[in-house]
Amino acid sequence: MVMFVLWSLPTLVFLLLRRQPVTVGLGRPQAHGWTWAGILLLVLLVLSYLVLLPVPAEVVAQTTTATTAMGFLAMALRAVGEEIFFRGFLQGIITQRWNAGAGITVQGLLFGLIHLPLAMMDVSLIPLFVVQIATGFAQGWLREKSASLWPGAAVHAAINILTAMLLV
């Protein structure tokens, strides 16, 4: 819950203090957004599973934090908070100021950057780090395609939870 608040707080403050309208993607997604979200979920789940197969069990044990219902809920809320910040707030502002390509690129790279400590834990986790960077770009694309961050938030939460379940 704390991570959800920390990731969502900048967006909330920005929305309360803004002078010009900015689209942060909190509205209803276009119908095809959920179709793309389902496809993206399957692709990312398979990629995550494949890159984690060669990772030693002791390394996996260090990365898996959720083993209870509350742990899974915390993972889901963190994912939604990250989506609100990266795809809603950050991508929304950059896209409005420049263009969608710039918004997707900047938020995707920064999203990858926050996951760098995971890659630094063990060399076997570098492929997972690369998948997470690609996920940032894919989620940004999904936010543009659906005109909402909610399909991406659902995918992000589901990937976090399902990957953790595969690892337990």
Verbal overview:
Residues 67-161 form the CAAX prenyl protease 2/Lysostaphin resistance protein A-like domain. This is CPBP family intramembrane metalloprotease. The chain is an all-alpha fold and 168 residues long. The chain has one domain (2-9, 33-167). Helix content is 80%, strand content 0%. The mean pLDDT is 80.
Estimate the global geometry from the Cα principal axes: globular
Please report the distance between the alpha carbons of the first and last residues.
22 Å
Total strands: the figure is: 0
What is the mean predicted local confidence, pLDDT?
80
Please give the count of helices: 8
Secondary-structure element pattern, one letter each: HHHHHHHH
InterPro entries: CAAX_protease, Rce1/LyrA-like_dom
Domain CAAX prenyl protease 2/Lysostaphin resistance protein A-like: 67-161
Transmembrane segments: 35-52, 148-167
Protein name: CPBP family intramembrane metalloprotease
